[in-house]
Every structure is written in C-alpha cells, then in structure tokens.
Amino acid sequence: MEKGRLITIAFTIVAASLAGCASVAEKNADQCEHMMQSKAEPALVSVSEKQSSPDGRTVLVTGVVEDQRLNTVVPAKVECRFDGKSLATFHWLAPATLADSDDTHANARNIAH
User: Fold this and answer.
1) What is the pLDDT of residue 75?
2) Is the dihedral of CA 75, 76, 79, 80 positive or negative?
3) Which domain of life is it from (predicted)?
C-alpha cells in the first residue's frame, strides 16, 4: 500500500511539472503570434499553425500575409525565442520581403515597445 501511494505521488508531481511547461509553451506561442500580427498589421490574413519546443523557448508561427502590391496572399513564418516567459528575439523567416527587413535582426526589447 505504501509503495502504491508513493508511485501515485510521484506521477502527480511529474504531471504537474509537465503541465507547467506546457502552459509556458502555450503562452509563448500566443505571444509570438501576437507579435507576428502586430508587425504585419494590417496585412496578416491568418495564422494556421503554432509550434513550440517542449520547453517553450523556441516558437514557430506559420500563416499567410496579404501582399498588397501584388494583391496576392503569400506564406508567412516567424521564429520567436524566449528567455523564460520574456520574448528575447523575433525573426521573420518568410515572406522574403519581411525576412529582409530590420525586424529580422532586431532584439525583441527594441521591437516590443
């Protein structure tokens, strides 16, 4: 009986720890999506996918952006890196017009304010 109780407690602790990591990863993914939308406004049409590393330190957000010059919709992708819950870097990976912009190499502290 004592052994079973210890196993239950151990599993509860592990599950609680993993749930905490998942919530940080989810919050970081939401923060990256928000930054992507704010940097593309009003051009971002939609976000189709958010992928986080298990610890939430790296997030990739994929979607589409309206290219107003050509009146077309093009794929868009950003990468965010976090230091805990704080956004450390934000990089456009696509489209090329945004990937070549100053935001690609900017520190998140400079672009978040």
Assistant:
1) 93
2) negative
3) Bacteria
- Using DSSP's 3-state secondary structure scheme, residue 100 falls into coil
Query: Looking up tokens 């010059």, which residue turns up?
Result: 69
Domain spans, the chain:
2-111
Q: How far is CA 105 from CA 1, 6, 15, 75, 92, in A?
A: 58, 50, 37, 20, 9
Closest to 61 measured CA to CA, from 77, 44, 83: 77
Contact 92, 101 (CB under 8 A): yes
Residue type, 11: F
CA dist 72 → 12, 17, 65, 69 (Å): 50, 44, 8, 8
Sequence-distant (6+) residues with CB within 8 A of 105 are 91
Cα distances from 5 to residues 11, 30, 64, 69, in angstroms, run 10, 37, 51, 65
